[in-house]
Amino acid sequence: INNFPILNELLINQDYKSKTENNICYVGGITKSRGIFELADGLTKSSATLLLAGKYLETNIEDVLKTHPSWSKINYLGFLGRKDVKELYKKSKIGIVTLHPNINYINSLPVKMFEYMAAGIPVVASNFKLWKSIIEENECGICVDPLNHKEITDAIEKLLKNPQLAKIMGKNGQKLVKENYNWKMEEKKLLTLYKSLIE
What we know:
6 strands, globular, single chain, six-stranded parallel β-sheet, alpha/beta
C-alpha cells in the first residue's frame, strides 16, 4: 500500500501566466541525503528562488545551510499545514525531489513527488530507474543525477525558460495522479486486504 495523495486535496488548475516569480519548492524532511546541499549549489547559477518547507532532521544542518552562498535565494518557511502546502504549490513553478541514490530511496515512491504532480507542477527528480519510468515516460518532469548540481540547475532553468513545456508537463503529471497515483486507488487495495483477513 503506497502513501499517495488524497485526490482532491491538492488538485490545482495552475495558471503559469500569473506566476511572475521563479519560485521552485521542496517540501519534506531536510537532510543531506535528501539533496539539500546539491540543490543549494545549483541555486548559485540559477534564476530561481527556493521555497523550502519542512523540518531540519539532522544536527547543525540549518546552521551550515545558512552559511551557503545561495542562502539569500532560499525562503525557509518551516513546517506547514496542508492548506499552507497547497498555497505553496500555487506559488511554485517546479517541485524538487532530488534524493541521493541511497538504498532506501532508489525503489521508494515519495509522496512529495506525487503531490507536486497532483498540484500540476513539473518535477525535477533523481534519475532512479523506477522514477524515470514514471516521470520521463509520462513527460511530467526531468530526471537528473542528484549528485550533480549542474544537471539540477540545467533542468530548473530549462523549465523556467520554457513555461509552455512546464505547463504541459504539469498537466501530464496531474492526469497521471488522477488516473493511477492517488489514495483512492490504494484505498481499494487496503479494503480488499481487510476483507480477505476477516473472511
